[in-house]
Amino acid sequence: MFNYIPNSVATCVGSLPMSQTYKTLGIILKGRAFGEADRLVTILSPEFGLIQAVVPGARKHKSRLRGRSELFVVNDLLIVKGRSLDKIIQADTLESYPKLSRDLGKLAASQYLAELVLCLGLSEQPQRELYELLNEHLYRLQEISSGQSIHSHLAQGVFHLLAIAGIGPEVHTCCLTRETLIANFSDPHWRVGFSFEGGGLIKLAIPEPSLSTQKKFTRVNRLSVNQKLNAVELSLLQHLGHSVLPQPRQVLPPQSLNDLVSVAWVRIEHLLRNYAQYQLGKSFRSADLVDTLSPLEF
Question: Could you tell me the pTM of the whole model?
């Protein structure tokens, strides 16, 4: 373990009550230059949620805090509470996900998830589930082997994060009729709709309402369908809630196992991305880089 306390900070710490220092685990989600040699970072902590803190001297070439303040490094931290910004004075690195920085696609995907977490996370509140889920999906992205789909892992990561935030889409029943929707593989033209405003799936063929149910279905004509999904896409989407990424050969019929599955994963990831951006009112800049790195056009 390394304990780095600049002289100016050490004096201050010695005179502070213990209540003004605190320990926590934390993963670096965002960072930028601050002052002449410091770095301002945003951390996700399981105990305290999102924390913004200064890392003193982190931009100096020989600083021992330099590597510990980089993106996706997980540290055991000692932090001094400040009036406007906290200061990190000790750091013990526990994980750094080194394989992410060696692959531009994996790095862009990880930054995309970090942007989503920054929108979902809360400050000064426990965020253990969010913290553990992000770390789990960063590990999965790091371990993707050559030839595996980044979009499939991203799709499940986004789906899980939205679900624990309470804004996950409805992917099993029609948002209007509450009818259970099952993928129809026998009809190549079969489709189901997805509405951002409605919060999930919409059956496209909704019967004309009777006079007694007219009021109930008034909303049908007002909801726009943002994307249509075929049977393969619906089936894969409906299995994203599982803890393990669904393998196409386990959830799709043999006749559907073809090159179009890769396109389906891209479309599902785009759907969930656009849905998240709609719900949060924010676009994810890193997602644009993910698109440029995708070899698929559709």
Answer: 0.86
